[in-house]
Give the backbone structure.
Amino acid sequence: MDFSTEITYSAEQEKFRQEVSVWLSENAQIPAEFKIPRETGDMSHELYNWVREYRKKLGAKGWLAPLWPSEYGGGGLSVDMAQVLEEELSKRKIPAIYDNRLAAPAMMVWGTEEQKQRFLPLINKGDVITWQAFTEPEVGSDAASITTSAVRDGDDFIINGTKVYIGGPFSADYIWTTAVTDQTSPRHRNLGAFYVPADLPGISFSDMELIVNVGKRFVYYDNVRVPGEYLVGGENQGWQVAQTSLEIEHGAGGSIGEGASRDGGVVAALFDYAQTAVDGAGNPLIEDPRIRDLLVEARIETHIVELIALRNYWMFNNQKRMTFHGSQNSLLRKLLAMKLGNIVLEVAGPYAMLNDSNWAPSRGVFESHQRQAITAHHPGGSSEIQKLIMARRLGLSRSKEEAAPTKVA
Ligand SMILES: Cc1cc2nc3c(=O)[nH]c(=O)nc-3n(C[C@H](O)[C@H](O)[C@H](O)COP(=O)(O)OP(=O)(O)OC[C@H]3O[C@@H](n4cnc5c(N)ncnc54)[C@H](O)[C@@H]3O)c2cc1C
């Protein structure tokens, strides 16, 4: 049996890697004078504009959606080539534009051909930013219980309601939103999903103050007239449509490379810290067997998440049947964030809580991670909800369910 773990690449892949690497060297260098903030909500205007332009350039090459058909703004690449691209991209620490493509997979499955032709190239080429707006002030985990309403008026819908925890640092061009279209039908058969232009009259926003600044907002809909052309899927099919977005948000599509665990560089910072800091008696931390065990644990746990993300990437893109896999990816990522938070505390002690320029290890990565580990439990559904989904799909729950439909090509 061959236990070698070395991945080998074809000559064609290596040639493409070279092309990608050269392009990224020319286009993906953030100017040295730009400060990279620990939290994306603290991004400067210069960096904001730079990231927007970079993403558009990437999109113009089809590299924001490498596996998607070129007619919908994708790169039309094979999985082998996309893998190389993802590996190279993951090596560059470019701030992501979170959330901006979650409407696309749902539109691909549920949209009309006209909607796909009109909206998918905009999304996949990075020409527009989309916020996903499902959560409401009184409704999070139980996303079917929303009260935002969409009342039909001729060919239009009039939307009223409030959404919370929405968006990110980049301003929205469209809002991907759920609303009750039918006040009389039962749960799961009473919602619509809308791709709403963010500048329609009656839409307003306000900032949220969370323990991490990732630019989250309230979104208010006040008698917003939305033409029917922005309804995606059937008038009462919004629950099913939203499930496709959530499937991808959980991680069914997987990912490749260094960013898969979304550890924000905390594991690398732990290794650096242990190699440079000393304990109270002046002994290097790295010589303490307990610290060494913790570092190994951090690396193993991170690697498990990376492998799960890689497995999903392979399954998804080879059209394997997926059930619990997306939620498993999400759950392990969320648990990892907490585990790393505990490891950081054990390794750095009270220094883990500092973010000042004199005393904070690794420029405040540890302190920021402590806060992010808590909020990371919620986006796309909390860890308890991921367990619930897994149980239903593994046949361990009273109710059974299948994964929502997804497709790229
Ligand atoms: C940083 C951040 C980013 C976010 N981004 C977005 C976004 O872009 N768009 C968007 O629409 N939403 C977003 N959200 C909202 C997120 O989806 C919700 O926070 C999440 O669905 C949980 O809802 P809730 O906060 O109302 O908690 P609740 O639903 O009130 O849950 C509270 C607690 O009860 C537990 N719980 C709830 N139901 C069950 C159950 N049936 N069984 C066991 N335990 C349960 C939960 O696990 C949680 O611990 C974001 C949230 C955060 C924190």
In short: The radius of gyration is 22 Å.
